């Protein structure tokens, strides 16, 4: 039976309306392309709103010693040297102007005494670098882009879910979507398609992601023949809420630690002093006094003369430390660690961390101006994603672009806090620019009827049944399984089991039954999400099984030591063939000489500073 | 008191295009649940096709607005312990969609109108040079407005819209907050006062403060946004001294 559908024609179609999608669409529209945004939510609701701490850019407002080279170094080091150094270079150089541009579009960042954009400290960043608005920087950025975007002549399709990319030969020529409200079908002809669909962290039961984080773009890309990389690297943010159970996983911003928050165990010890890894030895405070002095200096707007607290180590390090403390029986009441900011006083807390104050007050009944928070790791970000060209953001499939969390390369094995919002605007712009450029030389592709009808048939498959399992049940069980077997600490045996179970979950998803209605049927939407979640989870588990070492956001209990000789220089590449997820390895490309020099220059500067500061702290 | 194990009755509005009836459900509660958890439990245990809009479940996206026991609130930030406490023993908890907007299905309404109004508002217009300079006090005035999560609970509660349905003549509290945010931006030079008076109908607001009461972001919508804009309109159109000043100097009065 053929279904009816509506046709649309665009130069550039952007899928996703978070920070990256909006920034890409603005750029494409400004360069003259007829541009559409397709978003499965309402405008301004995307996961970007949940980014809290800030947007990293070497503006040099808070500390003049910062610069693109230091930001480049910090990003590469944080990535355990697996990041695409070309992307890290573009990012470090271009992020400052992308942030200043947001200001011209109406963003109102917190100010320095000199009336410029203020910057805060974050884990892994050598200098205070994060432009921020209290602890709701993501909301500020998405609202700014939304308020700019609606005046750029972009057509916006809200509550449309894309399930299929159209192809002609090896290139992408558009996409097929259904409307969530009415279950109608739409086919888009597009000369370039940009995937800006965000991440995959809804695949874990304890996560900080919104419901949208079901890996749509990762899956669409795989299904269309594109390659992914780094899929084993999942960032477990060290501080999610742990109690009560219904809010477990909701993010507690790293800004709490940036503002001086102290992590303690059940015995009241500042345990992070015991978890400084070899590669960061000497860069962090060695005593509580030194830590406290750093906080005192930094919050009063001075340049730090001593070293930063170990609470500000990179996220992978802090998350694993909390997990280890809990494992050793020194966890908090509900299985986490304590995070205390009350020493900063109610006024500073309510000004700098207002949404944390409300979040704990309203959801947990905890007053963080008086009491400690309980925090533990939560699945927060996927470093892996669609493999793209650093300059153009084009994937391995012509005409298909990706940016933001859906893309990969900038973060390697571990992302620094604050580098995500800057990623969105830097590479969102690039994707929009190059997708638009490409579209200029192309004729409008025709829409292939057979592909559209096949796609629609797959979409309505869950509804065309007599009965079956509730997709919600499968969703809950699959996420629980991923949490247990592909979580923060992994083993070969569990990963093998996980892959097998994911295949079974996928079959169950195909057989699930959400009722027959096409009208705003939440179960139908979920039944379809389950398919991409399963494929993306398999990609993650397979990459994790293959990488026989521990590094950044991938920790193997059976192989806990980083293996630098091979895996320190090797990437996992994922793709799909006839419905099966495949994997191969590729060497990391050697860094350009001038960038190597930049790294050395920064390393020497940091070593010199650490030496001076160690003196100052004693 | 822990609610774990308590059986709780609900009445949830089900139906399409305004034709709804309240359907009975019962679920067993867990510790620390919010209302949205209960709706998800009903979906996952009984009714997969129940329509509800939600995104972040952390009070940051403003998608899950509904009327819980008649009070407009975010389902994700409303704790069951509070709702159970306010509901008479043995009575079900009632959950309905926002009333002021066209109904789609179950708890989902059509909020497109808010986006249409936003489209008509002139965006920020400041210096072409980068690195804008203004201080934190100036930022504070505006940042407060920018905490809006666009849940549209204020619009849903505003009687000009909810009861009098003046959607063609009045911009509604959310978009008046947006206008205030632009008008009070330290470096913005655009003049939106004529539109605020005419097209956006600020004079229809008679300051009943219902919008402020329901705002989950705690924005002082009435005092800080609407009254300030009303004063600017009054200064422009009804203050004779300012009229003379403007005629002589041809300059906008700076606030």
Can you describe this structure?
- Helices cover about 35% and strands about 15% of the residues of chain A.
- Chain A is α+β, with helices and mostly antiparallel strands and about 625 residues long.
- Chain A has helices at about 20-30, 70-80, 85-105, 135-150, 215-225, 255-260, 290-300, 315-325, 345-350, 355-365, 420-440, 450-460, 470-485, 490-510, 520-545, 595-615, and strands at about 5-15, 35-40, 55, 120, 130, 155-160, 160-170, 170-180, 185-195, 230, 235-240, 260-265, 335-340, 375-380, 385, 400, 570-575, 580-585.
- Chain A is built from 16 helices and 18 strands.
- In chain A, strands 1, 2, 6, 7, 8, 9 and 16 form a 7-stranded mixed β-sheet that branches. Chain A has a 4-stranded antiparallel β-sheet with strand order 15-10-17-18, with helices on one face. Chain A has a 4-stranded antiparallel β-sheet with strand order 11-14-13-12, with helices on one face.
- Chain A starts with 5 loop residues before the first strand and ends with a helix.
- The longest helix of chain A has 25 residues, at about 520-545.
- In chain A, helix 1 links the parallel strand 1 (about 5-15) and strand 2.
- In chain A, helix 1 packs parallel to helix 4 and helix 9 crosses helix 10.
- By secondary structure, chain B is α+β, with helices and mostly antiparallel strands.
- Helices cover about 35% and strands about 15% of the residues of chain B.
- Chain B has a 5-stranded mixed β-sheet with strand order 2-1-5-3-4.
- At the A-B interface, helix 3, helix 4, helix 10, helix 13 and helix 15 of A face helix 1, helix 3 and helix 4 of B.
Q: How would you summarize this macromolecular structure in one to three sentences?
A:
The complex is a heterodimer of chains A (618) and B (255). Chain A is α+β, with helices and mostly antiparallel strands and 618 residues long.
């Amino acid at each position: 039976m053929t279904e009816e559908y509506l046709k649309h024609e665009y130069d550039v179609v952007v899928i996703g309306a978070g920070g990256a999608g909006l920034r890409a669409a603005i750029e494409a529209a400004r360069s003259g392309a007829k541009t559409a945004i397709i978003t499965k939510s309402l405008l301004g609701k995307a996961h970007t709103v949940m980014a809290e701490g800030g947007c990293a850019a070497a503006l040099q407002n808070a500390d003049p010693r910062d610069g693109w080279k230091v930001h480049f170094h910090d990003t590469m080091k944080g990535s355990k040297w697996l990041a695409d150094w070309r992307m890290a270079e573009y990012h470090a150089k271009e992020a400052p102007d992308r942030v200043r541009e947001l200001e011209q579009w109406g963003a109102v960042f917190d100010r320095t005494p000199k009336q410029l954009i203020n910057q805060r400290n974050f884990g892994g960043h050598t200098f205070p670098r994060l432009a921020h608005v209290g602890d709701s920087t993501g909301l500020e950025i998405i609202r700014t882009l939304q308020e700019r975007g609606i005046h750029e002549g972009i057509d916006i399709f809200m509550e449309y879910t894309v399930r299929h990319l159209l192809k002609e030969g090896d290139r992408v020529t558009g996409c097929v979507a259904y409307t969530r409200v009415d279950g109608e079908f739409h086919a888009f002809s597009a000369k370039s398609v940009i995937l800006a669909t965000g991440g995959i962290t809804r695949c874990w039961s304890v996560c900080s992601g919104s419901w949208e984080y079901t890996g749509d773009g990762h899956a669409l890309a795989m299904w269309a023949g594109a390659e992914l990389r780094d899929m084993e690297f999942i960032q477990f943010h060290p501080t999610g809420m742990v109690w009560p159970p219904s809010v477990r996983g909701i993010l507690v911003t790293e800004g709490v630690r940036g503002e001086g928050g102290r992590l303690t165990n059940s015995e009241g010890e500042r345990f992070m002093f015991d978890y400084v890894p070899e590669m960061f030895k000497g860069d962090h405070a060695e005593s509580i006094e030194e830590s406290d002095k750093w906080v005192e200096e930094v919050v009063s707007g001075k340049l730090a003369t001593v070293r930063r607290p170990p609470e500000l180590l990179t996220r992978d390090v802090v998350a694993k430390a909390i997990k280890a403390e809990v494992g050793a029986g020194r966890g908090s009441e509900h299985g986490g660690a304590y995070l205390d900011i009350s020493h900063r006083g109610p006024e500073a807390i309510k000004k700098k961390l207002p949404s944390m104050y409300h979040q704990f007050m309203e959801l947990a009944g905890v007053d963080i101006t008086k009491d400690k928070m309980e925090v533990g790791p939560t699945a927060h970000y996927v470093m892996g994603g669609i493999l793209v060209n650093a300059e153009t953001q084009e994937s391995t499939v012509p005409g298909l672009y990706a940016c933001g969390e859906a893309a990969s390369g900038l973060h390697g094995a571990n992302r620094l806090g604050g580098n995500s919002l800057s990623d969105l605007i830097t590479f969102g712009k690039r994707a929009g620019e190059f997708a638009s450029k490409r579209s200029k030389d192309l004729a409008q592709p025709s829409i292939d009827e057979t592909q559209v009808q096949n796609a629609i048939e797959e979409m309505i498959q869950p509804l065309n049944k007599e009965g079956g399992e509730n997709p919600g049940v499968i969703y809950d069980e699959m996420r629980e399984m991923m949490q247990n077997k592909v979580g923060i600490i992994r083993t070969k045996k569990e990963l093998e089991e996980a892959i097998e179970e994911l295949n079974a979950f996928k079959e169950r998803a195909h057989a699930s039954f959400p009722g027959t209605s096409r009208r705003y049927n939440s179960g139908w939407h979920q039944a379809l999400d389950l398919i991409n979640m399963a494929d993306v989870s398999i990609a993650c588990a397979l990459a994790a099984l293959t990488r026989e070492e521990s590094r950044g956001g991938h920790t193997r209990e059976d192989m806990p030591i980083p293996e630098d000789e091979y895996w320190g220089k090797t990437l996992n590449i994922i793709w799909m063939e006839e419905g099966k997820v495949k994997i191969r390895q590729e060497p990391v490309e050697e860094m350009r000489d001038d960038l190597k020099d930049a790294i050395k220059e920064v390393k020497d500067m940091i070593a010199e500073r650490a030496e001076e500061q160690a003196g100052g702290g004693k | 008191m822990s609610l774990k194990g308590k059986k709780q009755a609900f009445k949830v509005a089900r139906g399409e295009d305004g034709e709804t009836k309240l359907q009975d459900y019962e679920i067993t509660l867990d510790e620390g649940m919010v209302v949205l958890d209960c709706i998800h439990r009903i979906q996952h245990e009984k009714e997969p096709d129940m329509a509800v809009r939600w995104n972040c479940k952390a009070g940051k996206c403003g998608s899950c607005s509904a009327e819980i026991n008649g009070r407009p609130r975010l389902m994700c930030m409303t704790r069951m312990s509070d709702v159970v406490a306010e509901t008479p023993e043995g009575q079900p908890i009632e959950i309905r969609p926002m009333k002021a907007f066209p109904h789609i299905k179950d708890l989902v309404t059509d909020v497109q109108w808010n986006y249409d109004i936003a489209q008509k508002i002139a965006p920020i217009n400041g210096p072409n040079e980068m690195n804008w300079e203004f201080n934190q006090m100036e930022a504070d005035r505006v940042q407060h407005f920018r905490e809006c999560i666009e849940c549209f609970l204020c619009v849903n509660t505003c009687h000009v819209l909810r009861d009098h349905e003046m959607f063609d003549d009045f911009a509604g509290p959310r978009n008046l907050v947006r206008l205030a945010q632009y008008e009070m931006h330290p470096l913005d030079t655009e003049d939106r006062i004529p539109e605020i008076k005419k097209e956006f109908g600020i004079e229809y607001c008679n300051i009943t403060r219902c919008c402020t009461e329901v705002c989950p972001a705690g924005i002082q919508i009435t005092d800080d946004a609407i009254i300030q804009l009303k004063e600017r309109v009054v200064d422009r159109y009804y203050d004779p001294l300012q009229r003379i000043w403007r005629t002589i100097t041809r300059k906008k009065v700076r606030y």
